[in-house]
Amino acid sequence: MKSLAIVALLHFTFIASPFCQTSATSAPASPKLIVGIVVDQMRYDFLYRYQAKYGQNGFNRLLSEGFSCENTRYNFAPTYTAPGHAAIYAGATPSVTGIIGNDWWDPEWRKHRYVTTDERYKTVGSTTVKVGQHSPSVLLSTTITDELRLSNNFKSKVVGICLKDRASILPAGHIPNAAYWFDDTSGNWITSTYYPDSTGLPRWVQDFNASRQPDSLLSQNWDKMVSGTYQESFEDWDRYNKGDYARYLHGKKMPYDLPTLKKTGGYGLLRFTPFGNTLTLNFAMEAVNKMQLGAGEATDFLCISFSSPDYCGHQFGIHAEETEDMYLRLDREIARFLDFLDKKLGKNNVLLFFTADHGAAETPAHLNDLRIPAGVFPESKLEETLEKALASALGIGGNFIHEANNQQIWLNWDAMADLDIEPNDVASVIIDHLRKQPGVYDAFTREELMMLPSEYPFAPELRRGIHPRRSGDIIFHLDPAWHADDKTFPKGGTTHGSPYTYDTHVPLIWYGWKIKPGETFAPVDITDIAPTLSAMLRIAKPNGTTGKVIEELMK
Q1: Does residue 183 register a pLDDT over 90?
Q2: How far is residue 191's CA from residue 463's CA, in Å, rounded to a whole number?
């Protein structure tokens, strides 16, 4: 009887747990490799805007053979690269992860900080001192990559790869095997002494750097991949191409003479071209081969992010032919990668998810020409403007503001105490001033934001972007189609950061191991990715997870 009960129990478990099923024709019990692909600044509609020009084996293959969550959004603001990547891999919003922006005033450091800067560690792979002084220590929660390693006594291998340091470091988590990013000065892939065995670059990375692929990629011109007019873009868009990176791409139309531009832009030029994606993918495939990802007994994890679409979008905007060409070429890179994974490991042995770290806004000048309300808020000058307003209202000058950034303001509490000025008086002057400015929807203290009713527009999203020990004392929110000048791209192109749909609605496609083709329009939050992976793998969720399992995918 006891043996019969065991057989019955095993039979029930087999039927009730589809992700544990195995057979000669189905996928194995667990994938050999998980691949997370994140495209920097990919709006959801880019999946379909250029679809007629996409090939059959890239984005269209993901859509036809994968499961698409068509209504995926970021459930917080600000929508920037670092908070986005942290949310994807930690399954939590900035209120938990502490990743409140790409940079901010740090009350603990008492100075401005870049998100992953960590001077306790040294650069590996370049003589430029600061480019490798990074770690994930600022991230307050674990990631799905951390939990995977912890689940099997570190048998899984994890690596993060991206041109941007923060988009490599945060996804790979606290305990990966490696994370690599690109150095504009040397043209090398580099890392930090934070990571294991990083007293020097591994031999395979040294060999890859020695092949000088950046030189080869920048020895060609950047012209349209498809000849003729790009009907999906605006042919007369040149007047809106006013990004501040003229030293990189200062021509008005393709083709761009990259060999000549490299003389002034250096290897940093690569970031703004589709060939930055090519270099990233080449390096990622080399990592699969040389690190033998997917070849061991445990599931490995490759985190790969493509940053070039973000640089291009900031420079040119979402309707430029350059942006369209960027995605047409990225489509071919995705096809090349899927083919590589098929041949290397087989589709049923790889679980892949594809998403983006944020979307992108329309160019305000273009909307204005169409008589649509839009604008650029001069945040880069806000600190100076507010100090003058405070001096006038309070009758005394002082350094009352540490920083204005990310639509937040950090107050100098020491200065207020020294001058015997009430913080509430300072906050009141600032909020009254902000509410009178064009494009400002509202402004409030952090405490007031926390007490707003949930029906107040975007109050929940703004609250989820606030961390009690790191965020500013005053938060302001802009109207739709308004964005801050963000000190870097004040004149044209595009940017992101808002809770509006153009910044929050992104693709999410699952593909490969045990994934049945299909789609859902049910609401999905970006924080749902990590707990869904945990459910698939039957491992612990990241310790700060606030997301939920995507049940439609599991059916």
Answers
A1: yes
A2: 34
pLDDT, greater one: 49 or 255: 49
d(CA 152, CA 157): 11
In which residue are the tokens 């609401």 written?
523
Averaged pLDDT score across all residues of the chain = 92
Q: How far apart are CA 14 and CA 538, in angstroms?
A: 15
User: Domain for residue 12, yes or no?
Assistant: no
Domain that holds residue 383: 375-480
Backbone angles phi, psi at 127, to 5 degrees: -85, -10
Does 323 lie in the same domain as 406? no
Residue where a domain terminates, one of 480, 497, 522: 480
Last residue of a domain, one of 436, 464, 480: 480
Cα separation, 316 vs 237, whole angstroms: 9
pLDDT value of position 25: 47
Decide the pairing of beta strands 350-356 and 508-512.
antiparallel
Q: Is residue 493 part of a domain?
A: no
Catalytic (active-site) positions: 81
Overall number of domains in the chain = 2
CB 99 within 8 A of CB 141: no
Q: Are 275 and 182 in contact (CB under 8 A)?
A: no
- Over the stretch 111-142, which tens digit does the pLDDT of each residue have? 999 999 999 999 999 999 899 999 999 999 99
Q: Global pTM?
A: 0.94
Same domain, 91 and 230: yes
- Nearest partner of 356 among 94, 83, 33, judged by Cα: 83
Within a domain: 125: yes
Rounded (10°) angle between helices 275-290 and 308-316: 170
What is the CATH classification number for the domain harbouring 245?
3.40.720.10
Burial class of residue 115 in the structure, from the number of CB atoms within 10 Å of its CB (0-12 exposed, 13-18 middle, 19+ buried): buried
